[in-house]
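ESCALATION

Customer reports they have been waiting on this structure for their group meeting. Please prioritize. Original submission:
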Amino acid sequence: MHNTHKPPLLNQSSLYELLHARFDDGFSKLSDIPNPALLKDSVRAVERIAKAILENQKITLVGDYDVDGVTSTSIMVLFFREINYPLEAIIPNRFRDGYGVSPNILKRVEADLVITVDNGIAAVEAAQICKDRGIDLIITDHHTPSDTLPDAYAIVNPKLIDCPYPFKEICGAQVAWLVLALLKKELSLQVDMKQYFDLLALAIIADVMPLVGINRAIVQAGLQQMAQKKRPSSVIIAEFLDKKTISSEDIGFQIAPRLNSAGRLEDAILASEFLTARDENSAYQKFELLTQLNELRKATEAEASEDARTKVNPKDKIIVVAGEDYHEGVVGIVASRLVQEFGRPAIVLNIKEGIAKGSARSVGEINIYDLLRANDGFLNKFGGHKMAAGMSLREEDIEYFKEELNKDAQKYAEEDFLNKEELVGELEPSALDLRLLDVLDQFEPYGEGNPRPRFFLNEAELLNIRLLGADKSHSKLNIRTHAHMSQTYDLMAFRQRFEMPKSRKLSCSYTVNKNEWNGKVSLQFMLDRVY
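Update from on-call: job pushed to the front of the queue and completed.
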């Protein structure tokens, strides 16, 4: 193991103490959500939107094609549907339009007011076009601003240096929702803002926001709401997952990829139509389409991942790979796969007609946005945040770009590349019963900023191995955690084919999940990594 010290032995109460210490300031409640008026420019933005509504002006919304962007758009669409005011909602197409409110998109917009959600902080050129055409532009976004801000009517973004909003790590959908909450107040509208928590939970989880503070409170409320099936799309999600309680992992691994696949492969409007569906039947049909697209996405991504892997130089501190026929919609996922495998930040580029467009994913303490900004001379455009970014550059600049990034990355120490979410300890045999699930449940939702605890298993005895799945690509290991115990447990290893080692022993890290099968609840271990 790379930890030199032995992980501590934990029982249920010491585990509780350890997890509780992550929340030194106590748990936030929904009532702790700061006043939206603290968002810089939010009052100015809302007064302008209210004026447009009262004067019957044409309002156009421009969203984004990832889950956060689609969800932000959907919340806006549902709000305006409820107050019965026409809103033109555009989600750019990744292939035809490119990202966000671009000059490209503005060609098809005839409006008095344009509002962006989850994009716009880098839209300097688009803001100028709006200004020239006499269109007021309101930007709502949460991405990191660069030094040059667009000249817009209002910019609402918690990450602006002079924005006093106390909780900075919120996603695009939350910014949009806070603006709508102010609008409701401004126009004295009868709209229940709590009804959107299920959608906010989707966006917060999918956009990998830290699940602490108000984010945690919103996600908890949203997941409960989803399970209560208050919205046609929630009915379909809850029935598809088929569980009494929905976890953030269910959303992250099962639902978010489906919603994302629309924008990755075809058009994100499909995902928005699912979230805003008026009845279960149309929600179901859209979900079926999303599931098919997700299967296609998996196949496309597997192919690109195979190819990209062969191009990696393991000596590089920053991986940069490019291909002619990578599907533009999956380069981000391929980058994530490379990060997982090599433990390095990765940039994956798709080359088309001399232009390379791609996505970056980071790891540990490495701020990929800062590295890109230091080398923006090579880039036509870029944007994002510490852990993920998008960019485009000329094909002939790729090699130089890669060299410079790697030079800059020399300043990072080896431990900066490690995820700090290391093991919390080794569970005593007495801790392995159903009450363990009660302890773990109290700190849900797990995710970014509050990782699901990972435990160490030392030389567990392997009793047998079954390969599962259509292509036998998953393994189910039956193990005895301690030699003297009669009880055995199942350890699931996804996307890994195991063979029985000679020693019939296994040391690994794992997480604990609740397994509900035929009305019976049991502990299920999920393999994290083998040591």
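Sent to customer with the following note: Residues 8 and 508 are 15 Å apart (CA to CA).
Escalation resolved.
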